[in-house]
């Protein structure tokens, strides 16, 4: 395949950055999007140019490292798929493809297409955990969990924390990420002791990090490579209102 | 709880909750207002009598125009809080993405109504100002003081003033779009939307938006086309 890539190049956090055009040729239809960028980078290195920096790790669609806004859509045109699992056969030969980093104040660009997603770590640190005694794992059947709760919690736990929800949101909100964590932990019996403090603390961190507020546009859930449903945000809102106005918070 | 409320309001979720609650008040008002308007089809006496009743509501338990004034205060407070939250969230959203995408941002979710909420809201506000100057304060009404409410409505939407009718219809359609997203959105904001009731809530929002739109536009259109005179 022959393609024209327009890639965001930015030397560092202080650099202004711009879109740079790169023609590539001889790309296999079976290559993943990241493999296609690998080919480009090999060419750039051979020519003595600086390769394009982008995040990646497992390349199996589960680590949450890969990102990229491709033609205006986080993780590209294929639904429920991370960039690393996106294949070039989803594009037309001769197509012009725009590649940009996640855009959010809370996700500053480190270099080219790499952004700092430390804000998500700080949100997790402020409440995305349970307190449990360490040591041998307890017998799994000692704490029964109703099947529907287990299913919903598992669905929310699929969140890989990639940040596509923020990149897709017209408000730059991380509510889907936040809702996934609050739903996942808040549905399990082990998550109950900290349930009300967790939601308040995590939302306060979310707001302090400079993310926007949710206005229920639903863009996040469509962009999410794991298909996290929008109702996790409803649950986040519900728990937050109950914790604060309802006085459940300690 | 007393200490919690201001802090709640500072949060993004709290602001949306305020929008949902004030929005609900305004939706109930719109439904009542629309039902009242439809009295125009029962004739001048019924319509004017209804208009007078709004002022005598609650008498003799409370003095003349007390309940109406209370309602007006509630509505003004609701509108201000609704706009305040919306503006605050819009400004926050702008700050949250200082560098825009180069590629045209594609929308994959929901529909047209969602994207009209902000500018639509501003146009609706301008419309409300005009509407109050027209039929409450009679400043831009062709008849003005000294006429009955029915006469003012008939004069307002006279066929010769078709552009006023167009303006009213456009504004009401925007209100309908606003409700089509807003009513559903309010349920999600308050955490009452679940996967099971989503279709019902979408249907409810569509029905409320449809009823309000048709109910409101029927009056100016009927006057303009001469079905009410």
UniProtKB/TrEMBL annotation, chain A:
<dbReference type="InterPro" id="IPR017896">
    <property type="entry name" value="4Fe4S_Fe-S-bd"/>
</dbReference>
<dbReference type="InterPro" id="IPR017900">
    <property type="entry name" value="4Fe4S_Fe_S_CS"/>
</dbReference>
<dbReference type="InterPro" id="IPR025192">
    <property type="entry name" value="Succ_DH/fum_Rdtase_N"/>
</dbReference>
<dbReference type="Pfam" id="PF13183">
    <property type="entry name" value="Fer4_8"/>
</dbReference>
<keyword id="KW-0479">Metal-binding</keyword>
<dbReference type="InterPro" id="IPR050573">
    <property type="entry name" value="SDH/FRD_Iron-Sulfur"/>
</dbReference>
<dbReference type="InterPro" id="IPR009051">
    <property type="entry name" value="Helical_ferredxn"/>
</dbReference>
<dbReference type="InterPro" id="IPR012675">
    <property type="entry name" value="Beta-grasp_dom_sf"/>
</dbReference>
<dbReference type="GO" id="GO:0051537">
    <property type="term" value="F:2 iron, 2 sulfur cluster binding"/>
</dbReference>
<comment type="similarity">
    <text>Belongs to the succinate dehydrogenase/fumarate reductase iron-sulfur protein family.</text>
</comment>
<keyword id="KW-0408">Iron</keyword>
<dbReference type="GO" id="GO:0022904">
    <property type="term" value="P:respiratory electron transport chain"/>
</dbReference>
<dbReference type="InterPro" id="IPR006058">
    <property type="entry name" value="2Fe2S_fd_BS"/>
</dbReference>
<dbReference type="GO" id="GO:0046872">
    <property type="term" value="F:metal ion binding"/>
</dbReference>
<feature type="domain" description="4Fe-4S ferredoxin-type">
    <location>
        <begin position="150"/>
        <end position="179"/>
    </location>
</feature>
<dbReference type="GO" id="GO:0009055">
    <property type="term" value="F:electron transfer activity"/>
</dbReference>
<keyword id="KW-0411">Iron-sulfur</keyword>
<dbReference type="GO" id="GO:0009060">
    <property type="term" value="P:aerobic respiration"/>
</dbReference>
<dbReference type="InterPro" id="IPR001041">
    <property type="entry name" value="2Fe-2S_ferredoxin-type"/>
</dbReference>
<feature type="domain" description="2Fe-2S ferredoxin-type">
    <location>
        <begin position="1"/>
        <end position="103"/>
    </location>
</feature>
<dbReference type="InterPro" id="IPR036010">
    <property type="entry name" value="2Fe-2S_ferredoxin-like_sf"/>
</dbReference>
<protein>
    <submittedName>
        <fullName>Succinate dehydrogenase/fumarate reductase iron-sulfur subunit</fullName>
    </submittedName>
</protein>
Automatic annotation (TrEMBL), chain B:
<keyword id="KW-1133">Transmembrane helix</keyword>
<protein>
    <submittedName>
        <fullName>Succinate dehydrogenase</fullName>
    </submittedName>
</protein>
<keyword id="KW-0812">Transmembrane</keyword>
<feature type="transmembrane region" description="Helical">
    <location>
        <begin position="204"/>
        <end position="228"/>
    </location>
</feature>
<dbReference type="InterPro" id="IPR034804">
    <property type="entry name" value="SQR/QFR_C/D"/>
</dbReference>
<dbReference type="GO" id="GO:0016020">
    <property type="term" value="C:membrane"/>
</dbReference>
<feature type="transmembrane region" description="Helical">
    <location>
        <begin position="112"/>
        <end position="133"/>
    </location>
</feature>
<feature type="transmembrane region" description="Helical">
    <location>
        <begin position="67"/>
        <end position="91"/>
    </location>
</feature>
<feature type="transmembrane region" description="Helical">
    <location>
        <begin position="162"/>
        <end position="183"/>
    </location>
</feature>
<keyword id="KW-0472">Membrane</keyword>
<dbReference type="InterPro" id="IPR011138">
    <property type="entry name" value="Cytochrome_b-558"/>
</dbReference>
């Amino acid at each position: 395949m022959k393609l024209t890539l327009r890639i965001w190049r930015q030397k560092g956090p202080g650099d202004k950055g711009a879109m740079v055009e790169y023609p590539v040729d001889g790309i296999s239809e079976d290559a993943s999007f990241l493999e296609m960028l690998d080919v480009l980078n090999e060419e750039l290195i051979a020519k003595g140019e600086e390769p394009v920096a982008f995040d990646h790790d497992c390349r199996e669609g589960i680590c949450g490292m890969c990102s990229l806004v491709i033609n205006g859509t986080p993780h590209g045109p294929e639904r429920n798929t991370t960039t690393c699992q996106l294949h070039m056969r989803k594009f037309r030969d001769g197509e012009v493809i725009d590649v940009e980093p996640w855009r959010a104040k809370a996700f500053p660009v480190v270099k080219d297409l790499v952004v700092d997603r430390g804000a998500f770590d700080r949100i997790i640190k402020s409440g995305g955990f349970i307190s449990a005694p360490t040591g041998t794992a307890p017998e799994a059947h000692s704490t029964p969990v109703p099947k529907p709760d287990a299913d919903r919690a598992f669905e929310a736990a699929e969140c890989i924390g990639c940040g596509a929800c923020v990149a897709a949101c017209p408000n730059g909100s991380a509510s889907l990420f936040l809702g996934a964590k609050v739903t996942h932990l808040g549905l399990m019996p082990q998550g109950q002791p900290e349930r009300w403090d967790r939601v308040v603390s995590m939302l306060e961190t979310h707001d302090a990090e400079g993310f926007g507020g949710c206005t229920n546009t639903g863009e996040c859930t469509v962009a999410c490579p794991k298909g996290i449903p929008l109702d996790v945000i409803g649950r986040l809102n519900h728990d937050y209102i109950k914790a604060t106005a309802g006085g459940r918070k300690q | 709880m007393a200490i919690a409320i201001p802090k709640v309001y500072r949060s993004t979720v709290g602001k949306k909750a305020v929008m949902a609650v004030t929005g609900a008040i305004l939706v109930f008002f719109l439904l009542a207002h629309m039902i009242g308007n439809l009295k125009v089809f029962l004739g001048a006496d019924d319509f004017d009598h209804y208009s007078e009743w709004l002022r005598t509501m609650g008498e003799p338990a409370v003095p003349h125009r007390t309940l109406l004034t209370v309602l007006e205060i509630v509505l003004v407070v609701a509108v201000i809080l609704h706009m305040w939250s919306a503006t605050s969230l819009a400004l926050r959203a702008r700050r949250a993405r200082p560098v825009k995408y180069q590629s045209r941002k594609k929308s994959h979710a929901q529909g047209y109504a969602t994207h009209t909420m902000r500018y639509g809201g501003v146009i609706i506000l301008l419309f409300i100002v005009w509407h109050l100057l027209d039929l409450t304060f009679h400043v831009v009404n062709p008849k003005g003081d000294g006429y009955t409410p029915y006469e003012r409505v008939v004069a307002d939407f006279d066929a010769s003033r078709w552009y006023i009718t167009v303006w009213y219809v456009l504004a009401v359609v925007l209100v309908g779009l606003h409700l089509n997203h807003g009513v559903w959105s309010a349920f999600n904001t308050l955490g009452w939307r679940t996967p099971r009731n989503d279709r019902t809530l979408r249907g409810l929002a569509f029905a409320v938006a449809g009823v309000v739109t048709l109910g409101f536009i029927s009056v100016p259109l009927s006057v303009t086309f001469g079905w009410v005179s």
